[in-house]
Amino acid sequence: xxxxxxxxxxxxxxxxxxxxxxxxxxxxxxxxxxxxxxxxxxxxxxxxxxxxxxxxxxxxxxxxxxxxxxxxxxxxxxxxxxxxxxxxxxxxx
Length: 93
Known about the structure:
Layout: H1 39-54, H2 59-69, H3 81-92
């Protein structure tokens, strides 16, 4: 049996912001590309995801999370994978 006293405390404060996210209830297919997606289809999907992010009250917190943990996939906080990578490189310079 696990020793409950050795378990970390409650951690919902680390993710509770997600409860207010504009993307709740929107399918993940809007934010994460299917294998092989390219060109206009990818651009359209990313723009649709960014439109949701633009209305989000926790957009900054979402982006902060994605940058801090190095989210490798999807649109987070209004930025694509490539845009987040560029932001991290720029910040490190």
